[in-house]
Amino acid sequence: MSYIQRFNVNHYRPSEDLKNLFEELIINPFNNHPPTQAWKDVVRSRNEGYHRNTILDRGRTDFDEQFNGLSPDRR
């Protein structure tokens, strides 16, 4: 699965079970999300750096708050 790969050989290699769980809980819901306008504008049209730094505030985001048209559960 290319979503969890890194090119440094000194990194964690997840088990097949963990890869499958990540695919089920993260990758599939992301790829199959209903195409709302906010989802297109804020998520799909941006890169992963924007997702980490802006939407998720480097891991300090408040998931009870709306963000640019994304409901808290969609954030």
For the structure shown, list the relevant keywords.
mainly alpha; 75 residues; single chain
Description:
The structure is a single chain. Helix content is 43%, strand content 0%. The protein has helices spanning 16-31, 37-44, 48-55. The longest helix has 16 residues, at 16-31. The model has no long low-confidence stretch (mean pLDDT 83).
Summary of the model, kept short:
Helix content is 43%, strand content 0%. It is mainly α.
Number of helices: 3
Beta-strand fraction estimate: under 5%
Mean pLDDT across every amino acid position: 83
Helix content: 40-55%
Based on CA atoms alone, the radius of gyration comes out at: 14 Å
Topology:
Layout: H1 16-31, H2 37-44, H3 48-55
